[in-house]
Design a protein that fits this description.
267 residues, 0% strand
């Protein structure tokens, strides 16, 4: 049973590997946006750093570190959601579920493929940050693994929510794949602490794992210590939001199957 599930999961993963292996524009796109973001914010940080000698180096690290870590969440979410949309655009979703494939196996395949896509997009940006700005993201030390894991999981549950909305509303919800997580950026405290936000929106920020991750990143860069409270909040919120995402996806998938939408979606 487990072997059969792994074979089906690998079949879906291999489909995406073959798709990207034969299409260099798709591979180039994975690295394009992280690299562009890094260049824009890196040059901006260099400009301000040259004029504020006392705090310029610290500000530079906060900005570039924030860009690189936020790309983990963005690429994780985009990789998973676009993998699902590929099945819709190719009119393949109905064919996939004519097979014995289970919904959780589809999700597992999308998660695995999103990790591969993340690495393809993230590694060039990390190397470019080192070459252009002499910034090493690994200077964060072992807490980097905690930051990255929390943002990776956040990208997954956001993606599950988007996929659920696509199953419910069809192609009209596809734009959420590009806009939803970007819309959470102001509340995620990527480039500034939560304390600078208006009091009315701080509860929104504190309900997101990302705000706690970036507060923790600033604690490491500024003081060299790990904010365990923020890490605990990030992990707990991720667990709660991931459970909500799984339940929403399962509910909408069942409804889509009953309505026959798995075949008609995208038409």
């Amino acid at each position: 049973m487990i072997r059969a599930s792994l074979r089906r999961i690998w079949g879906l993963i291999y489909r995406h590997v073959a798709l990207y292996r034969t299409s260099w524009p798709r591979v180039l796109e994975l690295a394009y946006w992280p690299t562009l973001q890094l260049c824009i914010w890196g040059f901006t940080a260099s400009f301000f750093g040259a004029r504020i000698a006392s705090t310029g180096a610290v500000a530079f690290g906060l900005l570039v570190g924030g860009v690189l870590l936020w790309e983990v969440a963005l690429r994780s979410q985009m990789g998973m959601t676009l993998g699902f949309l590929e099945e819709i655009w190719s009119r393949n979703l109905g064919h996939v579920f004519v097979s014995p494939l289970r919904p959780w196996e589809l999700v597992a395949a999308l998660v695995a493929s999103s990790i591969v896509k993340l690495l393809i997009g993230f590694v060039p940006a990390v190397l470019l940050a080192w070459l252009l700005y002499a910034f090493n993201i690994f200077s964060l030390g072992w807490p980097l693994a905690l930051f990255g894991a929390n943002l990776l999981v956040m990208g997954w549950w956001v993606s599950l929510g988007i996929i659920a909305l696509i199953l419910r509303h069809g192609s009209g919800a596809e734009s959420l794949a590009w806009s939803l997580l970007f819309g959470l950026t102001p509340f995620s405290a990527v480039f500034y602490p939560v304390s600078v936000l208006p009091a009315a929106v701080r509860p929104i920020a504190l309900a997101l794992p990302s705000s706690h991750v970036f507060e923790g990143m600033r604690q490491v860069l500024l003081h060299g210590t790990v904010a365990w409270g923020h890490m605990a909040w990030a992990a707990g919120l991720n667990a709660a939001w991931l459970l909500a995402g799984i339940l929403l996806f399962t509910w909408q998938f069942h409804r889509a199957r009953v309505r026959g939408a798995l075949i008609a979606i995208g038409e």
